[in-house]
Amino acid sequence: MPKTWADTSLFGSSHFSDQRILQQISDRKFQTELKYHCWPDLCTRGPDFSLIGKKLLSLEDPQFGQGLGPFIQEALDEQPLAPSLMRHLKTNWADVAAAITEISESYLCRSLPKAKPPAAASAAEGGLEAPSASPPSFVPISKEDDVSALALVGEKGHHYRVKKFLAEGSAGLVYEAERVDAPGSEGGGGAGGGFGSVVASLMKKKAEGPGEGEGVEDEEEGGESDEESEVDEDERQEAQARKTHSRFAKLVKKQLGRQLVLKRVKETQKDSAENEYRIASEVGDQEEGKRFCVGYLDRILETPTRLWLVLRRVNPSEHGVDLTDFINSKFFQQIGASGPRGQRHACGIVCQLLLGLHWVSSPPRLVSMRDVKPDNVLVEYDDFQDAFEAKWTDFGLAIKFDALRTPSTDQTGDALRSALVAFWYDTQKQVPKPKWVNRTPPERTYRQPASAEGGAPSPKKGDAAGDGGAGEGACENKMAAPSSYDMYMLGVICCSIATGIDWPHIDKAKIREKALELFGHGTLVSACGEGSSVRDESDPKFLASFELGAALHDGTAGVVFRKSFEDTFGKDFGSKLFALTKQMLDEDPEARPLPMDAYNTLGFRSYKNLD
């Protein structure tokens, strides 16, 4: 008879012991207890999985002979679930167990050896077991897979062809692709067999000038002197040139829009990818959304469990493809030094990001991206109008506050398991945060929607909503807007653009050295709070007490930050944005500005696509 969870496999994992499954679902690095949200009745809508894991691990002398059911039922009894849902989950405890296994394996399977037979994989420390001889419950994907011959057909009836591998992420693989049923050619690039020939044709047409029927209008008869006629002719030709240039720009942009990206999703990430497609399609479907978000165009089921997502490709400029490239190369510092003409690019990008967050978080969407960072801002340069277009991408962690996914009593089997995983994903999964520890966590930004119309009073510390302390996510209000966490992270992005430092990754030695080069040694430790024993940024405890918002308020560091903002964005815009960024990084989510309020405060109206 097994003595501990390390000796059992009641959860049915092909790779990991029950102990590893339970340790993973209980680990606070990966999930948040529901009590730390500003939304007390979330605890009634679905189970707190971390509490189930902790309960089972805490059992003394568990009697494994009775099976897993009684353990899970006992753990559910201790949670404040709605009575009908409580009965349903206890009856269908096996689906709860399956959801726990799926959630835990979505993390643990990342540590499995790649391209090694099971016999060659050694057991790791901490209870991680070598894969068993039984086949895995999923088939891993690899960039080495030959996918060029796959016949991929989307749910909208379009056919796609993979062209080349681009990148690998935690959710899957990314490829350059094309639609092969687009009008005009096999490659979807129009007549002539490809994008390059189309652009060449358009360039030739542009160089030839206006054709028949496209010339300047006939002069009206009478009255004009030769000199006036020459001036009017010059003006008309200039106007016609602008019109022809604009028409050419639109034609080329149309061709660029046919270039695509395919995301081949790992099977363990399929449910979250389906949610990503659902939300991204909603926020990016209308013309307004397309201005600020990368469009998700289609979905493809290669097999019942193998999903592909189709996105419009943002064409990289010589400076990079995402905002991180621009920040790390100090692009904005270089063009900012050239004066207002260069500074307007940085100003325009910030304004586009604000308008994008306003669009995403406003009714009826009410979406929080929960993954706002420079990597998830794609930047495209429009050389026809000398302007940058910044678009939000990656809605894999996004949630809709008015439509959180919850389990129901009419679900069983795979439907219930999927709903339980989705509930964990929307309410308990820890999302990426800055690498410093002393920051305001995203769970504080969850709020009950009815509170905006004067709902129940806010929970105080010690109430049912929990008192985890400032660093634990305890919250005394429920009025924070859906954009509040995203605005916190946008404040971090503004600091990154202003300084040319990738602050979200300040834990990396190279990034920290760039910060010390700008601020000097010992300056940033003043943002570590009163009573901190940290005396140097090299101290291992530095990130445990540093807070970026505090650095902006600090006398010495704040002066450096303010100058960086004014040098990069210009004195007027930079000083306004510096003040707004301090508000964005406020510890209280309710004190952070709304995206549109921040945009209006900046008063910037002279950039492409902003009016």
TrEMBL record:
Residues 160-604 form the Protein kinase domain. SMART domains: S_TKc (SM00220). Residues 205-246, 434-471 are annotated as: Disordered. GO terms for biological process: mitotic DNA damage checkpoint signaling. GO terms for molecular function: ATP binding; protein serine/threonine kinase activity. GO terms for cellular component: nucleus. Residues 214-236 have a biased composition (Acidic residues). Signal peptide: none annotated. PANTHER family: OVARIAN-SPECIFIC SERINE/THREONINE-PROTEIN KINASE LOK-RELATED, SERINE_THREONINE-PROTEIN KINASE CHK2. This is Protein kinase domain-containing protein. It comes from Chromera velia CCMP2878. The lineage of its organism: Eukaryota, Sar, Alveolata, Colpodellida, Chromeraceae.
